């Protein structure tokens, strides 16, 4: 049989003995006629008995009541602590959800205890996959799972960079084995370094392209000089031809260096545009004028289509002219004799659209995607002349004007380069 809850038998026994002693004392006083029995006395004794019983029961129950009070206050405190914990957890979750870094906490058995939304993006997880309880199923990447295993086994931070095929992102992961009292847990942090890697590739390509572009004319110069030394100098006609070649190579080197400097200046943002309302037809005519002779020599017709009275553009006119010159220069280079180049400007929504169309070689769709990259040449074997920087510079200048540049082309038919410049308000 279960004891009365909160009832302390030991305390009740003490109270009971005390009460029995009191009764015995009263009986003894009556027995020895020290006090006389009458109805009042019996009543008084009865009341005393009831009072003693009540007091002893209350005395026996007192610690239970105190314990109850303590339990109640503990429960209140526990409730408050739970609320604080829930608030802190939701704050942590919110904080983690703002992080661009992916964060996962894994226990000793490889179960995911916590993860943030960035993980879903970095690993291209579907909402279903994001619910996976094991790390292996969650990230589906054996190298990163191995990283967690090694960190757990060796108890030292491990680092690894690898590509995630699902999201096509390149991630750098760090696995931190946690210490007491969280030992056996591992924190994995993932950083998206795709952009950094891309920039690193561009930098490497840039150095190799510049070296290549410099080496070609330098090698030619070396050969020409050696030929002159070993006898060509004695033959004036040959010597003069060789000197002509040397001049061409030096011109190519000068063009490369000045375009490189121009590109470096544009890309380093030390490129303050002096924008003012400019007449599109005037800029266009100026650009065409600069290349008129060159077009004539190449046997191509250069025409202008520009309606007078077009809205003025907000542009740095010399820079805008440079874009047109780069495009017309290319058009002349890639259009065979007898071809036509049309340079035009027309009104678009909030912009003036400039274009340079030719009846030249055209550009394949694959190459159209890449010709605006630095050093890219669609057909390097055929196109020995040129740096591959002209279109990259043009793109930078147009974008600095908040415009867009593009190309439409068909191989064997011709190309049309176009760009927009905002109208001056
Ligand atoms: P490049 O100095 O080689 O002309 P660009 O950046 O100006 O460098 O052009 C990049 C490449 O784009 C060229 O090498 C060429 O293959 C292609 N290209 C540019 N303009 C034309 C055009 N009008 N017709 C055909 N191909 C062109």
Would you kindly provide a written description of the structure presented here, covering whatever features stand out?
- With 425 residues, the protein is an alpha+beta fold.
- The chain has helices at 9-31, 39-98, 117-122, 135-139, 142-154, 194-229, 236-267, 280-298, 317-333, 365-370, 390-400; strands spanning 102-106, 112-115, 158-164, 169-177, 186-192, 276-278, 301-306, 313-315, 340-348, 351-358, 405-410, 414-422.
- Helix 1 (9-31) runs antiparallel to helix 2 (39-98), helix 6 runs antiparallel to helix 7 (236-267) and helix 7 (236-267) packs parallel to helix 11.
- The model has no long low-confidence stretch (mean pLDDT 88).
- Adenosine-5'-diphosphate binds next to helix 9 and helix 11.
Number of helices: 11
Give the SSE string.
HHEEHHHEEEHHEHEEHEEHHEE
Globally, the shape reads: elongated
Give the C-alpha Rg: 46 Å
- Got a strand count? 12
Assign the structural class, choosing from mainly alpha, mainly beta, alpha/beta, alpha+beta, or little secondary structure.
alpha+beta
State the distance separating the first and last CA atoms: 96 Å
> Helicity range of the residues?
40-55%
């Amino acid at each position: 049989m279960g004891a009365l809850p909160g009832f302390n038998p030991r305390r009740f026994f003490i109270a009971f003995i005390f009460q029995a002693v009191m009764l015995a004392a009263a009986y003894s006083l009556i027995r020895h006629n020290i006090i006389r029995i009458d109805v009042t006395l019996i009543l008084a004794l009865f009341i005393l008995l009831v009072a003693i019983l009540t007091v002893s029961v209350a005395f026996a129950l007192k610690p239970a009541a105190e314990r109850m009070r303590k339990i109640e206050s503990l429960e209140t405190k526990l409730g408050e602590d739970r609320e604080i914990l829930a608030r802190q957890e939701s704050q942590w979750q919110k904080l983690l959800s703002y992080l661009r870094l992916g964060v996962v906490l894994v226990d000793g058995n490889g179960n995911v205890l916590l993860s943030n939304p960035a993980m879903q993006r970095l690993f291209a997880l579907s909402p279903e996959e994001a619910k996976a309880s094991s790390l292996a199923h969650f990230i589906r990447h054996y190298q990163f799972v191995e990283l967690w295993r090694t960190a757990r086994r060796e108890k030292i931070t491990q680092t690894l960079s690898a590509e995630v095929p699902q999201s096509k992102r390149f991630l750098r992961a760090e696995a931190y084995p946690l210490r007491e009292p969280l030992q056996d847990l591992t924190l994995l942090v993932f950083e998206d370094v795709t952009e950094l890697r891309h920039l690193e590739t561009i930098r490497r390509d840039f150095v190799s392209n510049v070296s290549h572009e410099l080496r070609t004319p330098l090698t030619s110069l070396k050969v020409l000089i050696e030929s002159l030394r070993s006898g060509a100098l004695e033959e004036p006609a040959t010597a003069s031809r060789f000197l002509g070649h040397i001049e061409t190579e030096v011109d190519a080197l000068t063009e490369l260096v000045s375009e490189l400097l121009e590109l470096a200046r544009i890309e380093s943002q030390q490129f303050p545009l002096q924008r003012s309302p400019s007449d599109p037809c005037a800029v266009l005519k100026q650009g065409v004028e600069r290349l008129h002779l060159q077009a004539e020599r190449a046997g191509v017709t250069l025409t202008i289509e520009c309606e007078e009275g077009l809205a003025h553009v907000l542009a740095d006119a010399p820079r805008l002219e440079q874009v047109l010159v780069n495009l017309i220069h290319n058009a002349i280079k890639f259009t065979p004799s007898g071809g036509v180049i049309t340079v035009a400007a027309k009104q678009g929504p909030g912009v003036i659209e400039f274009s340079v169309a030719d009846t030249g070689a055209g550009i394949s769709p694959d190459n159209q995607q890449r010709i605006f990259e630095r050093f890219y040449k669609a057909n390097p074997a055929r196109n020995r002349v040129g740096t591959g920087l002209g279109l990259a510079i043009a793109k930078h200048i147009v974008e600095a004007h908040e415009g867009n540049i593009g190309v439409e082309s068909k191989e064997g038919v011709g190309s049309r380069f176009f760009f927009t410049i905002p109208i001056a308000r």
